[in-house]
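Hi Y.,

Following your request, here is the sequence exactly as I used it, all 475 residues.
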Amino acid sequence: MLERSVLQRALDEAMKKGGDFAELYYEEKQMSQVIYEDERVDKITSGREKGAGIRVIKEGNTAYVYTNDLSEEGLLKAAATAGKALGKAEPAQEKALSLSSQEPAIGRISRDLLWDLTYADKINQLLAANQVVRDLGEEIRQVTMALSDIHKEIQIANSDGELLEDAYSRVRLGVNAVASRNGLIQSAYESAGAVSGWEILDKIDFTTMAEKAGRLALKMLSAAPAPAGSMPVVLAGEAGGTMVHEACGHGLEADLVQKGLSVYQGKYGEMVAAPGVTVIDDATLEGHYGSFRMDDEGQAAERSVLIQDGELQGFMYDRLTANREKKDSSGNGRRESYQHKPIPRMSNTFIAPGREEAEKIIKATPRGLLVKKMGGGQVNTINGDFVFDVQEAYLIEGGEIKEAVRGATLTGNGPRVLRDIDMLGNDLGFTIGVCGKDGQGVPVSDGQPTMRIKELTVGGTASPGGPQMKKIKRK
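Below is the corresponding structure, written out as tokens. Let me know if you'd prefer a different format.
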């Protein structure tokens, strides 16, 4: 970590040209990944990286400079560059800066937990999982797997006198299985991740996860083509919250709202979803992939209710967007690394559970489509129009789950989907991903209960189109 005196001098330098606010973000991280493909260890990577970013805000405008020269001279140079970037204004009255340490709201995660698993241990996990999938039959053509981890230590100091430090570890497991029969190719993907060390393997059996992906790829070889047309769609809790994240969540980030790029602009206090639908972003959920104790501006993590019983209640803010509306940050200022400035981002975003048993929702649906796993797709970030691929789906007939179908797509509009939810289950499932925005990727998780949407277009190939379309690839 950087010395307090160096941080103080860098902030003093950044504020010399009259900035309203200055911040220094220091980061040191260690990463590793093992990739297994085509019956062999394909790649082992590891690395260390550290650097600092200095941000100056003046009259709502931001200058951001980053450097990996962590000497006092290098930091002062970066701070001076950031301070000068916002113009030649006369220096403001000197402000006495005095950094005071503040501990994160929740205790640190032990670094030791991450390093308990050696490279040999990881390779043995991959070999065993590969064998389980290959044993499913000759129609399994390819198995690709990865085990990744990162440990990060951060330090944040700002001109408000705050000095915060934190450390955490995050791990991710992924399996992709490809099956082929008579020219037909189907794939299935399973992933898991958490803010934790490799003790996650005490809760998740990697070989079972891999076998599940392989069996699904094989099952889809025998599935019938999905029907086309408008029909009720039941999204199972295990499908996770891809829909709410992509087609709704981004529209609730304050920077897009303030730029007029959100369908929710000007709708605070209005009914934007069906009664009973509550959307929450909660970075405080223990161990979830998108969780953190404090955001990348040092704001304590929060549970933010965005939509309450159908009514729009709030947005996700970082420090800058909150100041524009004279509000407090909601703790959603996130950045990919020290090379990026913080912007409003989701953490763990989900639709809160309802009261119905999942089985009752199926029984109450005479005809429709049950979606158990979502794929990638495209979303119009301005109006919420979307096209999503479906990885696993089944027909519902007479209130019963029937045969599997393949090749399904879901076409619709995110805000309209929220209004068309007519049944909510009492379960709750999450998926993980890396969310991309403004050239930055951050880890997130999204969730939902089993829920029924009164009508969606299934199996269509029409795309909403437009320059704002964002390609979605779940990772």
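Confidence is low (pLDDT under 50) at residues 104-112, 460-469.

Thanks again,
Q.
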